[in-house]
Each structure stands twice: as C-alpha cells, then as structure tokens.
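Box 3.1. Reading complex inputs
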Amino acid sequence: MTIDFNAATIAEQVRSGALSAIAVAQEALRRIKASDSLLAVTRCLEHRALQEAAAVDAKIARGEDPGALAGVPYAVKDLFAVAGLPTTAGAARLEFAEPAPADAVAIARLQAAGAVLTATLNMDEFAYGFVTDNARWGITRNPHDRACFAGGSSGGSAAAVAGGLVSFALGSDTNGSIRIPASLCGVFGIKPTHGALPMTGVYPFVDTFDDIGFFTRTAHDLALVDAVVRENAAPATGAAKAALLGGWFTQNLTTEMRDALAVLTDALAPLPVVDVAGVAQARSAAFVITAYEGGTLHAAALRQDALSYDPATRDRLIAGAALPAAVHAEALAVRDRFALQFHALFDRFDVLIAPVTMGPAPRIDHPVVVIDGEEKPARANLGLLTQPISFLGLPVVTVPLVVPGMPLGVQLIGAKGSDPMLIAYAAELEREGIVGCTVAEGF
Amino acid sequence: MTDQVPSDDALAKAVGDALDMDVPKACVPGVAANVRLLEHHIAIMRQPAQPGR
C-alpha cells in the first residue's frame, strides 16, 4: 500500500482508524534509511518514532482524541533539543555534548498533537550558511537534482520534505535559512513574525533575527502544523491586496526566475510594482548584526578551542566577534529607518511578493551566485533577497512556483502578526494552481 | 601617497587583540578575508539610501 505523505491525509486516516500510526512510522523509517545519499538526516530516531506511534494507536484504541496531527511523521533541524540527545547545531564539537534534558517546546506541542518524531536533520554549522555544507555530516543534496545544493541552513529539513521522507520538518530562519531551502527544494515554508513561535530549546544564533518555522508539501499542511506549534492561531481568510517588490528584488535574477515571475505577475494581474530605498544598506546591516551577535555568542568557546569549529564558520565568527558594539548599534538604527517604508507599504497592501533567490539551486561543483556580474560564494550570498526582509522581523510564507525544471519560490511578506493571513493567501494561490509543491520522492 | 593595505597578519592580530585571544595560524587568512568583507558591508551600511538599491 502506498501512503500519501501529506500531513492532513495521514492525520485524517489515522484518526479514522483507516491507517495505523505504527504503519506510517515504519514507512517513514524505511524511507529515511533508503535515502542515505541525500545526506539530509543526521540521526534516525527509530525507537522514539515507534514509541510515539504506538502511543497514538493506543489512544485511538481507547477512544481518546489522538490529536490534530495523529501519526504524522516529521523531523527536526539538528538545533532543536530532543530529550536524551546532544543538540549539535550541526557542530562536530557538540556531537558528544550533554544530552538535552527535555524536548524543545515546539516538539512537545507536536508530540501532544500526535505527531511522530523520526529524525534529526542536517544544517550548516551553527546555522551560519545558506547551502548546508557541513564539515561533519556532509553536503545535503537537492532531491530534484543531487548535483545541486538543497540550500541552507535548514537544508536537511527542506530535502527531507521534498524527498518524501517525512510529512513536515522543523527548521529555523535567521537570514533566510527556511525560505532559501524551501525555494530551492520546491516546498512550502514559513518564517513567522519574529518571536511568534516558541524558541525554548532551540540552539541560538542571532537573537535579533532567529525564528523557528517549518516546511510542508501543501499550504493546507502549513496551516495544520502552524495551529499546533503556534497555539491560539487566529483563523484568517486569504483575500489580500498584493504588490510585487521591484528594484533590488528584481535585479540579478536568472532567466528562469524572470520567466517564472512573469508568469506569476500575469496570473495575479493587475499586480502593482513597488520599490523601497536603501535595501543594500539594510542587507549589509543585517550582515553586520549577524556577524556581531553570532560572534559574540561564540567568543568564549572560540578563545578556548577555535580549531574545533568548521573553518568556514569559525573564521566568520571570529571576525564578527571583534566588531565594536557601536557598529552593532548603528546597524540597528538602519533597521529602524528601513522599517518605516514597510509600515507605509502595509497601509496600502496586505502582501508584498519577492523572489526568494536569484535563481535555481547552485551546483555543488560550482558553488556561486552571480551578483552585479561577479561570481560570489553561494554560502554567504544566497540570502541577498531574504536578509532585508527578516532584518525587519516580518512574517514570510515561501511558496513554490509552478515551473519547468528546478524549483523556484517566492516570498509572501506581510505586516507583523499577519502570519495566518499569509498562510491562507498561499492556500488560495495553491487552489488556483498558481503555486504548488513538486515532490521528488522515489518511493 | 597611497593607503597601505593591511596584511592578513595585521588584521588577524587586531582581531586577536580585540578578543584577547591568539588567533591560530590556520585561521589567519579566513579571519582577514572576513574582516575585509565586514568592512565592505559597514561601508555600504553607512552610505545614503538609494531608491531601488
């Protein structure tokens, strides 16, 4: 029997008794074990998954409500605390750290709703990168073309969903780490309003920008998971007045992305184009804040044992740690000025649309993106179009465009607190066939 | 007269002094490259905001 891995379908079938949670967990574990070459999974949690699935089936047998996500298999980026396991944050130096005493709050909420945790997932070390090139656990491959990056830093999460290993996955986004891999792997993703989802039990990186979020195969699943992780999510309609962000956000695009945006613009016509000033300043300020806060967080450990870090992360962190606090304050002031323009735009529009990346996933053997005619390292520069948005703490839903070839996504950006509206809008676009996930599973 | 470009060693030493640490030799080129990258971003951040940029 083939199991449809959409979360809503599994939950409905398990809740009705048509499918056992154990059968779903066994299928997810089989898929995980068959997908080693993706390098998406860092630890398969077989024992825990079977225990949680058995608990769901037992509840159903007793006539109890098993929860909204009964039996739905998921996995988490390796920076969420999982009780009894070290939280590695993708770092070899933490592989044998003290085990976490308890689950992260997000995991606890999912467990209470009947979801089944099956694995931890690969990431850039300490979430400092956009490609999931990890010195200890390898480079996560894009399920649509294994010669290409999955994106990062939550690349394991996006690849696990796009590859059909699990129904959904948790990740985190500081400068684009959910939006970029969601776009490059062709799945839905949400980076919430800053601070809206629980961060307890999540390994930190940059407090000013860090948020958790998740990846799904449908917009409907996004709403389902959001209602559990967020708690008290308000229902919303998708009817929204949208505009396309121009200027910076339409420069440096590849032909594939320009063509895809043209199709989207036609489908949503009339779609006004709006521009904001100072995006380059905003992106650079985000870069500076990230370097300063990330570096400061790791300064003590770097003094003690710098060589235990991944060199690609270490040298960025050391340089950032040495920045003066006054420069950090200056960058925060840039943010305040930049935000005023968006306040004004959200008086006129509900949703601002922008590409997530300049083009499709870069190849692993040529890890660059082209900016203003020059090749730049993808690891540090794939966030060109995402950093100015998370800089402001705005909620963003990433939706996969319907395109030939490798996946591409756009950001649906809303005012703070408009997360449920963005999810509903994504669902509306999905119903109209304007966006949609292409799963690359071979099961 | 031209400005002297600081060497990798000089940049890494300045970082080490600021952090009260000895920057390991293996880190010097990478740290220096990242210091230069951050200087570039700080310079952009301080420019006047341009429409559409």
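In summary: The two ends of chain B are 33 Å apart (CA to CA).
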